[in-house]
Design brief:
Strand content: 25-35%
Order of helices and strands: EEEEEEEHEH
Distance between the termini: 14 Å
Number of domains: 1
Largest sheet: 5 strands, mixed
Mean pLDDT: 86
Radius of gyration: 16 Å
Structural class: alpha+beta
Length: 133
């Protein structure tokens, strides 16, 4: 099994690559948060999802580690396709030029829509294909 604390590599195009990690944090009276950290050329961007009214993060039932969502959307921050959708939306908005913290809830609807579009464009498995283990 992969060590979830070890940074993973996400290649956006042939020359652009990001390292990324996901962690859960809480303390000092702050709500639980899921933090997606993107690193490229010394620029560190943290996309933070803070638990709040109508918003949940992976702090246990009914969610899981890396799970974030609200009444309309749910994403798993451990999935590379989800990270790519959040990265693409942050890039589209010009938010990756300097180290900073971003509110993940602002990116959630666009990223969830992108993940949904990609899933809809993926052909179904053949009927005789065995399920994933």
């Amino acid at each position: 099994m992969r060590d979830r604390r070890r940074p993973r590599r996400l290649t956006v195009d042939e020359t652009t690559a990001y390292l990324w990690t996901v962690r859960h944090a809480h303390g000092d009276g702050e709500p639980c948060r899921e933090i997606l950290t993107l690193l490229r050329d010394g620029v560190r961007t943290r996309i933070v999802f803070r638990e709040g009214r109508g918003r949940y993060v992976g702090s246990g039932y009914p969610s899981h580690s890396g799970g974030v969502g609200d009444a309309r959307h749910h994403l798993n921050l451990h999935e590379p396709g989800v990270v790519r959708a959040l990265l693409d939306e942050a890039r589209r908005r010009g938010l990756l030029s300097s180290s900073r913290e971003l509110d993940g809830w602002e990116l959630l609807p666009a990223a969830a829509a992108a993940v949904s579009r990609r899933a809809a464009a993926t052909p179904e498995a053949p009927p005789d294909c065995p399920p994933d283990p």
